[in-house]
Amino acid sequence: MLRTMKITLTPQQKLQLEQMHDIERDSRVCDRIKAVLLASEGWSQTMISQALCIHESTVARHLSDYVLSEKLKPENGGSQSKLSATQTMHLIEHLTEKTYSHTHQIVTYVKETFGLDYTVSGMNKWLHHNGFSYKQPKGVPHKFDEAQQQAFIEAYEALKASCDKDESIVFIDAVHPTLSTKISHGWIRTGQDKVIETTGNRSRLNIIGALNLSDIGATIVHNYESINSESIVRFFCELRKSYPLAHKLHIILDGAGYHRSDLGRVGHWLRHNPYPATPLQFRA
């Protein structure tokens, strides 16, 4: 019987190996990682070989490779990574936090950090092998504040829970679409051009809409020459006509200037609208 090899891993090392296992696509590498993790939990080589359905001598070789050089890649079946397991996880964490536009920048980082030389093609293979792909990041609003967003969600959920049957929550927003010819792609004979007539000018619309998520069919939409405080107040009047007199409306708006001006404030509108007794709340 082969002697059981003792392997001690820190919690961080275990986490790194588990993360590497999650993204690894080579089952042979996964077996090596599992062997190391199980050995660190006190499993014997016999138990590991039975669990992984591999020979006990193979388990011993996997563990020895890791103890001597942190090797987790097989000798055959593609080029062996120059990075050790610890270095690999370090680079994965770094690339998860920082996005590089060009592979040669990553090659430079690896050279400066680990003293290892990679070609651009070699690094591309490493990136694909370790679960990275070249794609655009997803944009978020430049003023995005996660804490404020969470606070709004909590306030909104509380408002929904407190609303009676004679109350509604209405979201109001304005959009400014422009109507113009958009030239896309299509299959055209090579060497020939296909002409599409474009519009002579662009038609800009200024639309205000009110959406009640409990009654999508009752969505109210109006077009105005421009969006300003006056058009907002006019829209409030149209909105008020669409609900019973005693119905309370909770209006949710964004922070646009025409919502925050003196004329556009709901409080001002309440003092001058035809139904002064109608309760209405403003939230922005």
TrEMBL record:
Residues 98-156 form the Winged helix-turn helix domain. InterPro entries: Homeodomain-like_sf (IPR009057), RNaseH_sf (IPR036397), Tc1-like_DDE_dom (IPR038717), Transpos_IS630-like (IPR047655), Winged_HTH_dom (IPR025959). Gene3D superfamilies: Ribonuclease H-like superfamily/Ribonuclease H. It comes from the Bacteria. Residues 169-262 form the Tc1-like transposase DDE domain. Pfam families: DDE_3 (PF13358), HTH_29 (PF13551), HTH_33 (PF13592). SUPFAM superfamilies: Homeodomain-like. One of its GO terms (molecular function) is nucleic acid binding. NCBIfam families: transpos_IS630 (NF033545). This is Mobile element protein. The lineage of its organism: Bacteria, Pseudomonadati, Pseudomonadota, Gammaproteobacteria, Vibrionales.
